[in-house]
Amino acid sequence: MINVPSQRKLDKLLKYYHNGSLDDAEQLAINITKEFPNHQYAWKVLVSIYYETERLSESLIASKKTVSLDPKDYQSYFYLGNILKKLGRSDEAKESYKKAVTINQYFEEGFINLGFISETTNNVGDAKKYYIKAININPNNANTHYNLGNVLSSLGDLQKAALSYQTAIQLNPNYAEAYYNLGNILKDL
User: Which residues contact 29 (CB under 8 A, 6 or more apart)?
Assistant: First the structure.
């Protein structure tokens, strides 16, 4: 039988975390990880606490532990990617996001973050591909249509960029940036 923490202890950890008692949650999570080092849940809570409190080095260590405990957990790779991105390690973040979407090919947020990383590292061709994949998963995300419009605009495909901005506006009629970019595109056309 696998040695695991009691459900009561895990519930208490979750309660602390959700109530914003991060010091109590952190202490309990550390105790759980010491007693049950191969139980992933407390490690995941530590990842979140460290990330939220800007202790990125500690968050990175805990995140790597969660990935090692369950290499098929796409969310752990996603969180690892977020930490790496925040640390300015774009190439490593991109690889972590790629692992996440390889494990779960319907993981919209993973494709969005891949698009964002690609866009910020001037790889707009890849950004376009990833944003399109995210839109195929969820065609109702106005932000992704807007991001795709930006990429298409930078690629010089103004007609398609205009369509992306129009879709973003249809999905969110208060999307001021999309109106602004659409107006500039229409002016250029």
Answer: 13, 42, 43, 45, 46, 49
The set of residues, in sequence order, having a beta carbon less than 8 Å from that of 65 and lying 6+ positions away, is: 43
Tell me the pLDDT of the chain (189 aa) as tens digits: 468 999 999 999 999 999 999 999 999 999 999 999 999 999 999 999 999 999 999 999 999 999 999 999 999 999 999 999 999 999 999 999 999 999 999 999 999 999 999 999 999 999 999 999 999 999 999 999 999 999 999 999 999 999 999 999 999 999 999 999 999 999 988
CB atoms within 10 A of CB 69: 16
Q: Retrieve residue 116's tokens.
A: 């964002």
CA 170 from chain centre, in angstroms, equals 25
CA separation for the pair 126, 121 (Å, rounded)? 10
Q: Which helix (H) or strand (E) holds 103?
A: helix 90-103
Provide the residue type at 113 as one letter. Answer: N
The tokens describing 19, both together, are 């109530």
Phi, psi of 70 (to 5 degrees): -145, 85
Cα–Cα distances (Å) from 25 to 8, 19, 29, 47, 189, in that order, read 14, 9, 6, 12, 55
Name the pTM for this structure: 0.90
